[in-house]
Amino acid sequence: MGVMGMLHAGTLNSLKNVKVVAVTEPEKLVVKFIQTFLPNIKVYENYVEMLKKENLDFVYITTPVKSHVLIAEYCAKNNIPFFVEKPLSKTATECEELCKILNKNSITNMVGFNLRYSSTFTKAKELLDKKAIGDILNVKATAYRTLVLKEGTGWRFKKESSGGGVLIDIGIHVIDLLLLFFGKIKNVSTEKISFVIPEIDDSVTGLLRFENGLTCIFETSWNVKNYRLQETTLEINGTLGKIKVNEDYVKIQYFESDEESNEEILYRQSLYKGVHLDIGGSMYASEDADFVNCLENGTQPGSNVINSIQVQSVIDSIYKSSKSNKQEGVIYIE
Ligand SMILES: NC(=O)c1ccc[n+]([C@@H]2O[C@H](COP(=O)([O-])OP(=O)(O)OC[C@H]3O[C@@H](n4cnc5c(N)ncnc54)[C@H](O)[C@@H]3O)[C@@H](O)[C@H]2O)c1
To answer: Phi and psi for 245 in degrees, rounded to 5?
Structure first.
Protein backbone atom coordinates (compact mmCIF):
# COMPACT_ATOMS: atom_id res chain seq x y z
CA MET A 1 0.00 0.00 0.00
CA GLY A 2 2.63 2.48 -1.11
CA VAL A 3 2.17 5.34 -3.57
CA MET A 4 0.61 3.30 -6.42
CA GLY A 5 -1.33 1.03 -4.03
CA MET A 6 -3.09 4.06 -2.55
CA LEU A 7 -3.73 5.63 -5.96
CA HIS A 8 -5.31 2.47 -7.38
CA ALA A 9 -7.21 1.62 -4.18
CA GLY A 10 -8.83 5.09 -4.15
CA THR A 11 -9.68 4.95 -7.85
CA LEU A 12 -11.05 1.39 -7.69
CA ASN A 13 -13.13 2.07 -4.59
CA SER A 14 -14.98 4.82 -6.43
CA LEU A 15 -16.01 2.49 -9.26
CA LYS A 16 -19.49 1.00 -9.33
CA ASN A 17 -19.46 -2.68 -8.18
CA VAL A 18 -15.92 -2.44 -6.70
CA LYS A 19 -14.92 -2.37 -3.04
CA VAL A 20 -11.40 -2.66 -1.65
CA VAL A 21 -11.75 -5.16 1.19
CA ALA A 22 -8.21 -6.27 2.08
CA VAL A 23 -4.59 -5.27 1.59
CA THR A 24 -1.19 -6.77 2.37
CA GLU A 25 1.41 -4.48 3.88
CA PRO A 26 4.57 -5.58 5.73
CA GLU A 27 5.57 -2.11 7.02
CA LYS A 28 4.22 -1.60 10.56
CA LEU A 29 3.93 2.19 10.20
CA VAL A 30 1.85 1.90 7.02
CA VAL A 31 -0.30 -0.78 8.67
CA LYS A 32 -1.04 1.62 11.53
CA PHE A 33 -1.97 4.34 9.03
CA ILE A 34 -4.39 2.01 7.19
CA GLN A 35 -5.96 0.77 10.42
CA THR A 36 -6.47 4.34 11.63
CA PHE A 37 -7.81 5.94 8.45
CA LEU A 38 -9.36 2.94 6.66
CA PRO A 39 -10.80 0.82 9.52
CA ASN A 40 -13.07 -1.21 7.20
CA ILE A 41 -10.16 -2.67 5.25
CA LYS A 42 -8.52 -5.86 6.55
CA VAL A 43 -4.73 -5.72 6.67
CA TYR A 44 -2.50 -8.77 6.28
CA GLU A 45 1.27 -9.02 6.63
CA ASN A 46 1.55 -11.72 3.99
CA TYR A 47 -0.22 -12.01 0.61
CA VAL A 48 -0.54 -15.82 0.78
CA GLU A 49 -2.47 -15.57 4.04
CA MET A 50 -4.68 -12.83 2.54
CA LEU A 51 -5.41 -14.83 -0.60
CA LYS A 52 -6.18 -17.99 1.38
CA LYS A 53 -8.54 -16.26 3.83
CA GLU A 54 -10.29 -13.75 1.57
CA ASN A 55 -12.42 -14.74 -1.39
CA LEU A 56 -11.18 -11.93 -3.67
CA ASP A 57 -12.49 -11.23 -7.17
CA PHE A 58 -9.15 -9.71 -8.20
CA VAL A 59 -5.81 -8.49 -6.86
CA TYR A 60 -3.70 -5.39 -7.55
CA ILE A 61 0.06 -6.01 -7.25
CA THR A 62 1.74 -2.66 -6.51
CA THR A 63 4.79 -3.90 -4.59
CA PRO A 64 8.50 -3.35 -5.45
CA VAL A 65 9.40 -5.13 -8.71
CA LYS A 66 11.16 -8.15 -7.15
CA SER A 67 7.89 -9.59 -5.80
CA HIS A 68 5.68 -8.96 -8.90
CA VAL A 69 6.16 -12.33 -10.64
CA LEU A 70 5.94 -14.40 -7.44
CA ILE A 71 2.60 -12.84 -6.48
CA ALA A 72 1.30 -12.94 -10.07
CA GLU A 73 2.18 -16.65 -10.34
CA TYR A 74 0.35 -17.37 -7.08
CA CYS A 75 -2.74 -15.53 -8.43
CA ALA A 76 -2.55 -17.26 -11.82
CA LYS A 77 -2.22 -20.73 -10.25
CA ASN A 78 -5.23 -20.01 -8.04
CA ASN A 79 -7.42 -18.49 -10.80
CA ILE A 80 -7.39 -15.01 -9.30
CA PRO A 81 -7.45 -12.22 -11.93
CA PHE A 82 -4.73 -9.66 -11.30
CA PHE A 83 -3.31 -6.28 -12.26
CA VAL A 84 0.44 -5.84 -11.85
CA GLU A 85 2.22 -2.51 -11.96
CA LYS A 86 4.97 -1.94 -14.52
CA PRO A 87 7.62 -3.26 -14.86
CA LEU A 88 6.17 -6.75 -14.92
CA SER A 89 9.48 -8.20 -13.75
CA LYS A 90 13.21 -7.63 -13.33
CA THR A 91 13.95 -9.73 -16.45
CA ALA A 92 11.95 -11.46 -19.18
CA THR A 93 13.26 -14.94 -18.32
CA GLU A 94 11.86 -14.56 -14.81
CA CYS A 95 8.35 -14.61 -16.43
CA GLU A 96 8.66 -17.93 -18.29
CA GLU A 97 6.64 -19.96 -15.77
CA LEU A 98 3.97 -17.22 -15.45
CA CYS A 99 3.69 -17.12 -19.22
CA LYS A 100 3.20 -20.92 -19.36
CA ILE A 101 0.43 -20.81 -16.73
CA LEU A 102 -1.39 -17.93 -18.49
CA ASN A 103 -1.09 -19.55 -21.92
CA LYS A 104 -3.02 -22.51 -20.47
CA ASN A 105 -5.35 -20.56 -18.18
CA SER A 106 -6.24 -17.17 -19.59
CA ILE A 107 -7.54 -15.33 -16.52
CA THR A 108 -7.94 -11.56 -16.92
CA ASN A 109 -4.61 -9.86 -16.23
CA MET A 110 -3.18 -6.42 -16.86
CA VAL A 111 0.24 -4.74 -16.66
CA GLY A 112 0.14 -1.07 -15.63
CA PHE A 113 1.32 0.73 -18.77
CA ASN A 114 -0.87 3.74 -18.06
CA LEU A 115 0.41 5.82 -21.02
CA ARG A 116 -1.69 3.56 -23.24
CA TYR A 117 -4.65 5.38 -21.65
CA SER A 118 -3.32 8.90 -22.25
CA SER A 119 -5.58 10.87 -24.62
CA THR A 120 -2.59 12.31 -26.52
CA PHE A 121 -0.83 8.98 -27.17
CA THR A 122 -4.20 7.42 -28.07
CA LYS A 123 -4.76 10.23 -30.60
CA ALA A 124 -1.26 9.78 -32.05
CA LYS A 125 -1.89 6.04 -32.53
CA GLU A 126 -5.20 6.82 -34.23
CA LEU A 127 -3.42 9.22 -36.64
CA LEU A 128 -0.69 6.68 -37.40
CA ASP A 129 -3.23 3.92 -38.00
CA LYS A 130 -5.00 6.24 -40.48
CA LYS A 131 -1.61 6.89 -42.17
CA ALA A 132 -2.17 10.62 -41.57
CA ILE A 133 1.56 11.33 -42.04
CA GLY A 134 2.10 8.71 -44.73
CA ASP A 135 4.79 6.06 -44.42
CA ILE A 136 6.96 6.34 -41.32
CA LEU A 137 10.60 7.22 -41.98
CA ASN A 138 12.12 7.36 -38.49
CA VAL A 139 11.34 7.94 -34.81
CA LYS A 140 12.98 9.60 -31.82
CA ALA A 141 11.76 8.55 -28.37
CA THR A 142 12.65 10.02 -24.98
CA ALA A 143 11.55 9.66 -21.34
CA TYR A 144 12.91 12.14 -18.82
CA ARG A 145 12.33 12.83 -15.17
CA THR A 146 14.57 14.77 -12.79
CA LEU A 147 14.92 12.25 -10.01
CA VAL A 148 18.50 11.87 -8.93
CA LEU A 149 21.57 13.95 -9.16
CA LYS A 150 23.14 11.81 -6.44
CA GLU A 151 22.50 8.35 -4.97
CA GLY A 152 18.96 7.86 -3.65
CA THR A 153 17.54 5.43 -1.09
CA GLY A 154 14.80 2.78 -1.13
CA TRP A 155 14.10 -0.27 -3.29
CA ARG A 156 14.52 1.62 -6.61
CA PHE A 157 18.25 1.94 -5.87
CA LYS A 158 18.84 -1.79 -5.30
CA LYS A 159 19.09 -3.84 -8.50
CA GLU A 160 17.99 -6.95 -6.61
CA SER A 161 14.64 -5.21 -5.85
CA SER A 162 14.16 -3.04 -8.94
CA GLY A 163 15.90 -4.85 -11.81
CA GLY A 164 17.84 -1.70 -12.74
CA GLY A 165 17.49 2.07 -12.93
CA VAL A 166 15.88 4.64 -15.21
CA LEU A 167 15.52 2.27 -18.18
CA ILE A 168 13.35 -0.25 -16.37
CA ASP A 169 11.59 2.46 -14.35
CA ILE A 170 10.47 5.06 -16.93
CA GLY A 171 12.21 4.10 -20.21
CA ILE A 172 10.01 0.99 -20.19
CA HIS A 173 6.90 3.12 -20.91
CA VAL A 174 8.52 4.29 -24.17
CA ILE A 175 9.43 0.74 -25.18
CA ASP A 176 5.83 -0.37 -24.57
CA LEU A 177 4.49 2.49 -26.72
CA LEU A 178 7.01 1.81 -29.49
CA LEU A 179 6.03 -1.88 -29.64
CA LEU A 180 2.34 -0.91 -29.66
CA PHE A 181 2.81 1.70 -32.42
CA PHE A 182 5.41 0.08 -34.67
CA GLY A 183 5.56 -3.66 -33.92
CA LYS A 184 8.45 -5.84 -32.81
CA ILE A 185 11.99 -4.53 -32.30
CA LYS A 186 14.56 -6.76 -33.97
CA ASN A 187 17.80 -5.56 -32.44
CA VAL A 188 19.22 -2.84 -30.20
CA SER A 189 22.53 -1.01 -29.72
CA THR A 190 23.16 0.84 -26.48
CA GLU A 191 25.37 3.81 -27.30
CA LYS A 192 25.76 5.33 -23.85
CA ILE A 193 24.85 4.36 -20.29
CA SER A 194 25.68 6.06 -16.99
CA PHE A 195 25.10 4.88 -13.45
CA VAL A 196 24.14 6.75 -10.28
CA ILE A 197 25.53 3.77 -8.34
CA PRO A 198 26.78 0.46 -9.80
CA GLU A 199 24.02 -1.33 -11.72
CA ILE A 200 21.48 1.50 -11.27
CA ASP A 201 21.49 3.35 -14.58
CA ASP A 202 20.46 7.01 -14.53
CA SER A 203 20.80 7.67 -18.26
CA VAL A 204 20.62 5.39 -21.32
CA THR A 205 20.91 6.26 -25.03
CA GLY A 206 20.56 3.77 -27.86
CA LEU A 207 19.32 2.80 -31.27
CA LEU A 208 16.40 0.44 -31.82
CA ARG A 209 15.79 -1.32 -35.12
CA PHE A 210 12.32 -2.70 -35.83
CA GLU A 211 11.41 -5.84 -37.77
CA ASN A 212 9.67 -3.59 -40.35
CA GLY A 213 12.96 -1.75 -41.06
CA LEU A 214 12.17 1.39 -39.02
CA THR A 215 14.86 2.84 -36.74
CA CYS A 216 14.43 4.80 -33.50
CA ILE A 217 16.90 6.86 -31.49
CA PHE A 218 16.03 6.29 -27.85
CA GLU A 219 17.04 8.14 -24.69
CA THR A 220 15.87 8.01 -21.09
CA SER A 221 17.28 9.86 -18.12
CA TRP A 222 16.76 10.70 -14.46
CA ASN A 223 19.64 13.15 -14.39
CA VAL A 224 18.37 15.90 -16.68
CA LYS A 225 17.20 19.11 -15.01
CA ASN A 226 13.75 20.74 -15.04
CA TYR A 227 11.63 17.62 -15.53
CA ARG A 228 9.71 17.69 -12.24
CA LEU A 229 7.12 15.39 -13.82
CA GLN A 230 7.93 12.54 -16.17
CA GLU A 231 7.90 13.65 -19.81
CA THR A 232 7.64 10.98 -22.48
CA THR A 233 7.99 12.15 -26.07
CA LEU A 234 7.78 10.48 -29.47
CA GLU A 235 8.80 12.43 -32.58
CA ILE A 236 7.68 10.55 -35.67
CA ASN A 237 8.69 11.60 -39.18
CA GLY A 238 6.59 10.44 -42.11
CA THR A 239 6.51 10.99 -45.85
CA LEU A 240 3.50 13.36 -45.59
CA GLY A 241 4.19 15.06 -42.26
CA LYS A 242 5.40 14.62 -38.71
CA ILE A 243 3.94 14.05 -35.27
CA LYS A 244 5.32 15.08 -31.90
CA VAL A 245 3.45 13.64 -28.95
CA ASN A 246 3.94 13.74 -25.18
CA GLU A 247 1.65 13.58 -22.13
CA ASP A 248 0.42 17.16 -22.79
CA TYR A 249 -0.16 17.51 -26.52
CA VAL A 250 0.00 16.02 -30.03
CA LYS A 251 1.50 18.32 -32.64
CA ILE A 252 0.84 17.33 -36.24
CA GLN A 253 2.58 19.00 -39.14
CA TYR A 254 1.27 18.18 -42.61
CA PHE A 255 3.60 18.93 -45.50
CA GLU A 256 1.60 20.83 -48.12
CA SER A 257 4.50 21.27 -50.51
CA ASP A 258 8.31 21.43 -50.25
CA GLU A 259 8.06 24.97 -48.79
CA GLU A 260 4.76 24.99 -46.89
CA SER A 261 3.28 23.00 -44.07
CA ASN A 262 0.15 23.13 -42.00
CA GLU A 263 0.34 22.66 -38.23
CA GLU A 264 -2.25 21.56 -35.69
CA ILE A 265 -1.74 21.18 -31.93
CA LEU A 266 -4.20 19.15 -29.88
CA TYR A 267 -3.80 19.66 -26.13
CA ARG A 268 -4.84 16.96 -23.70
CA GLN A 269 -7.51 19.31 -22.28
CA SER A 270 -9.27 19.39 -25.66
CA LEU A 271 -8.98 15.59 -26.02
CA TYR A 272 -10.27 14.93 -22.48
CA LYS A 273 -13.29 12.61 -22.46
CA GLY A 274 -13.94 12.64 -18.69
CA VAL A 275 -13.30 9.95 -16.07
CA HIS A 276 -15.21 8.80 -13.00
CA LEU A 277 -12.52 10.09 -10.61
CA ASP A 278 -9.15 11.75 -11.13
CA ILE A 279 -6.66 11.21 -8.30
CA GLY A 280 -3.22 11.14 -9.90
CA GLY A 281 -4.13 11.66 -13.56
CA SER A 282 -7.08 10.56 -15.70
CA MET A 283 -4.97 7.80 -17.33
CA TYR A 284 -5.01 5.77 -14.10
CA ALA A 285 -8.79 6.06 -13.78
CA SER A 286 -9.28 4.89 -17.40
CA GLU A 287 -6.78 2.07 -16.83
CA ASP A 288 -8.58 0.80 -13.70
CA ALA A 289 -12.00 1.15 -15.33
CA ASP A 290 -10.76 -0.87 -18.33
CA PHE A 291 -9.39 -3.61 -16.06
CA VAL A 292 -12.74 -3.94 -14.25
CA ASN A 293 -14.63 -3.80 -17.53
CA CYS A 294 -12.47 -6.61 -19.01
CA LEU A 295 -13.00 -8.63 -15.84
CA GLU A 296 -16.78 -8.22 -16.07
CA ASN A 297 -16.77 -9.17 -19.76
CA GLY A 298 -14.22 -11.99 -19.40
CA THR A 299 -11.85 -10.33 -21.88
CA GLN A 300 -8.13 -9.50 -21.85
CA PRO A 301 -6.84 -5.89 -21.66
CA GLY A 302 -4.47 -4.70 -24.44
CA SER A 303 -1.63 -4.46 -21.95
CA ASN A 304 -1.42 -7.95 -20.46
CA VAL A 305 1.35 -10.23 -19.21
CA ILE A 306 1.82 -12.05 -22.50
CA ASN A 307 2.55 -8.89 -24.51
CA SER A 308 4.41 -7.15 -21.67
CA ILE A 309 6.97 -9.95 -21.70
CA GLN A 310 7.99 -8.58 -25.11
CA VAL A 311 8.68 -5.21 -23.47
CA GLN A 312 10.84 -6.95 -20.84
CA SER A 313 12.70 -8.81 -23.60
CA VAL A 314 13.67 -5.49 -25.24
CA ILE A 315 14.78 -4.05 -21.88
CA ASP A 316 16.95 -7.15 -21.27
CA SER A 317 18.57 -6.67 -24.70
CA ILE A 318 19.34 -2.98 -24.08
CA TYR A 319 21.09 -3.89 -20.80
CA LYS A 320 22.88 -6.76 -22.56
CA SER A 321 24.10 -4.44 -25.33
CA SER A 322 25.36 -1.93 -22.73
CA LYS A 323 27.63 -4.70 -21.36
CA SER A 324 28.73 -6.29 -24.64
CA ASN A 325 29.18 -2.91 -26.41
CA LYS A 326 27.67 -4.39 -29.55
CA GLN A 327 24.33 -4.76 -31.26
CA GLU A 328 22.13 -7.41 -29.62
CA GLY A 329 19.19 -9.24 -31.20
CA VAL A 330 16.03 -9.25 -29.09
CA ILE A 331 15.13 -12.76 -27.96
CA TYR A 332 11.40 -12.76 -27.27
CA ILE A 333 10.09 -15.05 -24.54
CA GLU A 334 6.70 -16.28 -25.74
N1 LIG B 1 2.56 3.29 -13.75
C2 LIG B 1 3.15 4.30 -13.15
O3 LIG B 1 3.04 5.44 -13.57
C4 LIG B 1 3.95 4.04 -11.90
C5 LIG B 1 4.40 5.11 -11.12
C6 LIG B 1 5.12 4.82 -9.96
C7 LIG B 1 5.39 3.51 -9.62
N8 LIG B 1 4.97 2.50 -10.42
C9 LIG B 1 5.27 1.10 -10.11
O10 LIG B 1 4.46 0.68 -9.01
C11 LIG B 1 5.16 -0.26 -8.19
C12 LIG B 1 5.22 0.27 -6.76
O13 LIG B 1 5.82 1.54 -6.77
P14 LIG B 1 5.52 2.60 -5.60
O15 LIG B 1 6.13 3.88 -6.04
O16 LIG B 1 4.08 2.57 -5.23
O17 LIG B 1 6.42 1.97 -4.43
P18 LIG B 1 6.29 2.22 -2.87
O19 LIG B 1 7.62 1.95 -2.29
O20 LIG B 1 5.65 3.54 -2.60
O21 LIG B 1 5.26 1.09 -2.40
C22 LIG B 1 5.53 -0.27 -2.34
C23 LIG B 1 4.74 -0.86 -1.15
O24 LIG B 1 4.79 -2.28 -1.21
C25 LIG B 1 5.00 -2.77 0.12
N26 LIG B 1 5.58 -4.13 0.00
C27 LIG B 1 6.89 -4.47 -0.15
N28 LIG B 1 6.98 -5.84 -0.28
C29 LIG B 1 5.71 -6.34 -0.21
C30 LIG B 1 5.15 -7.65 -0.27
N31 LIG B 1 5.92 -8.73 -0.45
N32 LIG B 1 3.82 -7.77 -0.14
C33 LIG B 1 3.03 -6.70 0.03
N34 LIG B 1 3.50 -5.43 0.11
C35 LIG B 1 4.82 -5.24 -0.02
C36 LIG B 1 5.93 -1.74 0.74
O37 LIG B 1 5.94 -1.82 2.14
C38 LIG B 1 5.31 -0.44 0.22
O39 LIG B 1 4.26 0.00 1.03
C40 LIG B 1 6.53 -0.43 -8.85
O41 LIG B 1 6.50 -1.52 -9.70
C42 LIG B 1 6.70 0.85 -9.66
O43 LIG B 1 7.56 0.71 -10.77
C44 LIG B 1 4.23 2.74 -11.53
So the answer is: -135, 135
